[in-house]
Here is the input.
Amino acid sequence: MELSKAIEYLKNYNGRQLRLMEVCGTHTAAIRNSGLPSIISERIHLVSGPGCPVCVTVTGYIDKLISLSKDSRNVIVTFGDLMRVPGSEMDLSRAKSEGADIRFVYSPLDMIRMAEEDRDHVYIFAAVGFETTTPVYAALISEAEKSGTGNIRLLTALKTMPEAIIKSAEGIDGFLAPGHVAVITGTKPYEELAGKLELPFVVSGFKEEGLAAAIYALVKMAQSGERRCLNLYPQAVREEGSVLAGAAIAKYFESGDAVWRGIGLIPGSGMYLKEEFQRLDAGSRGIDGNTETPGCMCAKVITGRIRPDECHLFGKTCTVDHPVGACMVSQEGACFVASSVSPGSLREKSVSCSGSKIH
Ligand code: SF4
Here is the structure.
């Protein structure tokens, strides 16, 4: 089917009200960028889910990093998006401005060189992410072991998606499965979830045409009561996922309980270094403290219960320049996206949806 016909269908949809959740933060940004929400029928509600890793990281984790940074023997290394995520008292930017040695990098592997050149300090990487980034941290550990520096550690806040999707499923009629995560895990977990939750799942890429095709497919499946996972991103996602990445994760990590900001404790949803690699861990287990900033409604935004602009602080005391909650910090956070993305121009396009099979 041509994209223009799919969009026409979504525009004129007049069936029952549908709430469709995009799980992944990158999808949230791509969908808003595409302009789709302003084109499709008001009876189709696109809501964000728990797939922004920074947004679901508890304040206790930020507090732990800050506490480690106060030891002058430690250097904290992180991606830039973690710097302004609020802890219970301050964020990493403030700790840095007060003298802590906190550095940000574009690749965790950059830390190997830093640690090799400076054996007097312990370099601790803030390893936050989902199944997508866990293989990168596996590569970091592998390289750290090879380098033999002995001064590299990880403080992990690694999570897996399926149980968080179950926790967010109330009132949802279908899911856009997390595309990047599915590259690693394959479609099987989403087939299982579709059966368990009795809801349709669609795996989609990130381009406008693919997203429109995926939402069209989800609407059709929700209408017809289909409860399966449809893969519209076969060029990147296979049923079995990435065997190599899966093996790298299994070599270094094991599952354990994790607390999610906005959701709470989800048994078995965390990934931690195995016992034999504990010498590389900076104290990741048992971090469960979470202090929500008064008035911040990230917990409801993360689980699709409200839109960002339904938070009383949105655009007032909470802005991209002065974020109050984690959802306004990360570029994948729903509040950041709602504040900063200018709607795209899908309505002006009538390109053909090549490569996407629309049922
Ligand atoms: Fe939290 Fe700000 Fe989003 Fe409100 S607008 S939910 S305060 S991040």
About this structure: The longest strand covers residues 264-273. The radius of gyration is 21 Å. The chain has two domains: 1-48+168-235+292-351, 59-161+242-280. The CA atoms of residues 320 and 340 lie 8 Å apart.
